[in-house]
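ok so i was messing around last nite and threw this chain in just to see what happens. nothing serious, just curious
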Amino acid sequence: MKKLLVIAVATALIAPAVAMADTTLYGKLHATVGTLDTGADTDADVVVENNTSRFGIKGSTELDNGLAATYGLEMSVDIDGDGTNLGSRNQFVGLKGGFGEVRVGKHDTPAKLATSGLDAFADNNQAEMSEIIAADKHRVNNAVAYINKFGPVGFAVAHSTDVLGDDTVNTAGTALNNPANTAMVNYSNGPIYAGLGYTAVDNVGTDINLGLGYKHEAGHFANFVYETVEGDGAAAETAGFPAGTATDTNMYVAGGFKTGAATLKAGYGSSDRDTGGEETNTTVGVDYALGKKTSTYLMWNERENPKHDINVTDKITATQVGLVTEF
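result:
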């Protein structure tokens, strides 16, 4: 009887894990401590910052006829306690089969995915590529996406019925939204990567981004991203495009050299606005791997003229020690 009881208890404990075998819990916690000089006073402030920490679940459920239901639910967390502790990131339900995959929900645009992997200082509030490359900020609500891959070539397209709101319709039956179409194609083969993205948002703007990357088997890398972004109306800046009808020409280049557990890195980006001035973002740093999924780093960053003013030298400087762990 005791053996039967032990077997019954063990089965009860194992069964939930088996039922969730296709579901993955994952996350990334990223915090920094350092100095931040915004130019507002004579002394730099010592600050603790959260840097895009998040957790999520993702997975799939096998269906009939070779199909699978896919899903993902990702939330941001504010581990320094300064802001809202939970916020929505990618959230979707989908269907996958021999035809590819369809996703419905809130998601990074295909154009963002075309070049996001080329960010040498991803998720750092001061140094991340999105400070220069607008497409790297684009995540849209109310999206339907299609994803597929043929050998080394992948592609994705998506349509959002309203990137800024909630598909609002007024009393006259007229939609008050901003629909968008976005697409990407990429090529990945060995150390070589290339990606091209395109985004068009009604009454907001257009964005074309191109990225190239090389990663040596030893861990050394070199990345380049080029982008042109054009605003189209009053809502442009709200959606991460240049204000009004301005056009930005953006460039980001980064490289790293790996030696043992350390990786020396540098990145530089510039954004030149045709109706304003040039913004630049310069970063140097060193990462040190403490384990397979945990690292620490030291970084220096300088952002000049983030508002694209003409003949203005606003400058933000940060020196940080960071700790990143994933699960």
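not much to say yet. The helical segments are 2-19, 110-115.
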